[in-house]
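Submission sheet (multi-component)
Chains listed below:
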Amino acid sequence: MTDTLLLADGGSALVTPLTSFLVVICIGFLLCLAAGMGNETVADYYAAERSLSATRNALALCGDFIPATALLTPIGSVALSGYDGMATTVSASVATVVLLALAQPLRNTGRLTLGSVLAARTAGRAARIAGAVVTVAVCLPLTVVQLVVAGDAIAYVVGYRTPGAALVCTVLSGLLITTFAVFGGMRGTSTIQAGKALLVLGVVVAVAAVAASALHWDLAALLTRASADRGGTGSFLAPGLHFGTGTTGRLDQFSLCLTLSLGASVLPPLLMRVGASAHGRAARRAVRHATVLTTLYYGVVVLLGLAAGGIVGVDAITADDPRGNSALLLLTDALSPRAGSGFLFTAVACAVFVTSLASVAGLVLAGAAALSHDLYAGTARVRAPRELPVAQGAVVLLGLLGILTAVLLRGWSILFLAAFATAVAASAILPALVYALFWPGFSRTGMLWTLYGSLACCLLLQTFSPTVSGQPYSLLPGTDFHWFPLQNIALVTVPAGFLLGWAGSRLRPPTPTERTAAARTETAVLTAVD
Amino acid sequence: MSLFEPGYPPPPAGPDPVPDPAFDPVVDPHRGPDRIQLRRTARRLRHRLLAVNAAVGLTALLLGPALGGTTATTVWGGWTVGMLLLAAQAATAVVSAVRYDRACTAQLDPRAAALAAALHREANALHREATGRARP
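Outcome: structure written.
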């Protein structure tokens, strides 16, 4: 890292990562405050009164599809794993297609949270409770992952690379993000997400342009340099560098792609964002634009990964971080002399910071909506005016819980958390939504089997997978009690989720009341008339 | 009572379910041909979008490992077989998304709007018949 960029060197440069952070924090806070001024009702707080335009919602959706992990991890993955990293990155980009198929029907139901969508199909509180449990089971682990990655990245950027500094950065950024979410609500987080999408897209395109210019816009030369440390293009651009060429490795790679394609498409913040669209057509249009933007983003990310491997070198990347999460920062640092006085590095640092901020805010807001809207208001039948303070309290609660868990897990491998949360989204949320929106034969029993059964299945398989024990990268590397061979469990849990929903509905078919509810839901899905 | 058990008894045995008093004929989606046509069109467009992407995605994901080292073979200007497969997957996502939205705009939205208007008219008429006043 160039000395002028470090906070610690006390240089005279006005534009440093720290000053940029402070400016970004001030702007973000002002935006959140301004946006949050209009939050008088729960509908305001959670859905911005469904007043978000398709363009703004598309940018916010694009921001939702690019969490901090999607900004930092794929670049290192492509640099270290070549073809496997590219396949994983492309799989993440096509998640938008699955959401596109669901967006208009989902918005037409007029409901915001998973629990409330499911509650339209059945009587009683069980659907709301199950929806809330699954939502929190997805949002909380992802919040922890984002906070830990953000803490590491911010500590790196400001120049203090000690575990203590990373811990302080995690806590401070977590508190800041929670404050933003409390004041801003959906309107505030949408503004931040839209701004973040523009910033991140601009920054990655700029870094890619500088990197390509450094390599004279020659793709063949770029590939040759990127693969130099990985056995040449023959092995670097062939499958198998990440998980190996054996059957287990291939299944793991396939399972990872499946997890990203399906799980990333139905994360709770995305469902809320779709619900906040003005109407079904606007939701569909927003996801269509987001598909184009996200695919563009991931295409540039592949280029950046190759550039990182070629310019920084695989050895330098793994020496700095064995998982490759700092590859973007290392690449930008290496390109700084070309880009001029560290401006590019500062821009990337701000993009990383804003990305962390927006991602965690969206996750915390979605989790809080499940707690307050589904658990508290949906089951206790309270009046709407009382729900707003409860919603803000739930944001604080989830934010603090996320920070505490991130602090406790500091220094431990958190790979299993990310794998678990995304697998739960793919295995529980996706089947439940697909059945609830499109299958009249879906019953209450099938719904509960899908949600709780898939959650239990994910928990069981992930616990006994190599991400928890038996490998150097495991949560408990010193012990070995794993019997499930795959790190990514979606290959088994996604079919299990669909099967459980079908089997439960066959075993206990829908009651006449549920059939009526199914007819109502179908009419709403088609016409938005409830 | 467990969360895995239904909170109310299963439907009575017999060939036909007991009519539910809460049944609202206005929102019965199976009543008219317009509704059935709308549902079929929506399903067809959705299935086409997903099928195209699933086919191309699965081809890219399965063909890559099956081809092994052949994926690293350069085709043109640095582009390898594997990279072209992945690029095709991404391009399919973008093109199919745009076409899906256009198809929905042309084939789905007008019918859905007409049906929604008809439903509103029916609901208004029923409300006026029942209460003697216009629906708020």
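Remark: Chain B touches chain A through 64 residues (CB under 8 Å).
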